[in-house]
Amino acid sequence: MSNNFVAPRFFAQAIPPYTEGMRVGLLGGSFNPPHQAHRAISQFALKRLQLDRVWWLVTPGNPLKENGNLHELGARMQAARDVASDSRIEVSCLESVIRTRYTIDTINTLRRRLSGLRFVWIMGADNLAQFHRWQHWRRIADQVPIAVIDRPPQSFRALASPAAQALARYRLPESEAALLADRPAPAWVFLTGLKLNLSSTGLRNPDGSWKGPK
């Protein structure tokens, strides 16, 4: 459960630099470890959605995953910065600061404290397939536009999922992706064309340690 009060200075330290009116994509995850697909998805979203920045929100732990092999937050943060290697991609520990593991709390906090920014939540098709299992997923969809990045072979499963079906009437044509950040929620788009299929799971050894670069 999130803390109702976070000292402004701690919040400010967890938020990347920004200017009013900025279009910001939010990519949440454990980043255990971060990898080139995270970077590729972010750069793809920056271009297709006409975003100014993408913020990687490194979670203390995913409520839907086993976190026994989760590396220390500081290590994941530093590794994420090393992988991002792009001035438009910023890494944040906001969820640790506001003491939550739930996306709904993160979005509520950002919208309340940074109302001058236009946020888009970014997720892979594999996450859309299980979005209906997220806490208060309908409230998430009601508060922030969502960009779903296709990750074959997850396409059919994702678009046939309960959440995709429930939100079908709010889906924008892919040709209007650049308008998503300006649309009131609920609104979402399914972006195709990124051919990169890495996962953090595949980059971990059985004991939870990270595999070295190949």
Automatic annotation (TrEMBL):
Reactions this protein catalyses: nicotinate beta-D-ribonucleotide + ATP + H(+) = deamido-NAD(+) + diphosphate
Stretches of the chain forming a coiled coil according to its record: none
GO terms, biological process: NAD+ biosynthetic process
UniProt domain Cytidyltransferase-like: residue ranges: 26-188
Keywords assigned by UniProt, alphabetized: ATP-binding, NAD, Nucleotide-binding, Nucleotidyltransferase, Pyridine nucleotide biosynthesis, Transferase
InterPro entries on file: Cyt_trans-like, NadD/NMNAT, Rossmann-like_a/b/a_fold
Annotated EC: 2.7.7.18
Pathway where it operates: Cofactor biosynthesis; NAD(+) biosynthesis; deamido-NAD(+) from nicotinate D-ribonucleotide: step 1/1
Gene3D superfamilies per UniProt: HUPs
One function term, GO molecular function aspect: ATP binding
SUPFAM superfamilies: Nucleotidylyl transferase
PANTHER family associated with the record: NICOTINATE-NUCLEOTIDE ADENYLYLTRANSFERASE-RELATED, PHOSPHOPANTETHEINE ADENYLYLTRANSFERASE
Function comment: Catalyzes the reversible adenylation of nicotinate mononucleotide (NaMN) to nicotinic acid adenine dinucleotide (NaAD).
Similarity comment: Belongs to the NadD family.
Name of the molecule in the record: Probable nicotinate-nucleotide adenylyltransferase
Originating organism: Bradyrhizobium niftali
Gene behind the chain: nadD
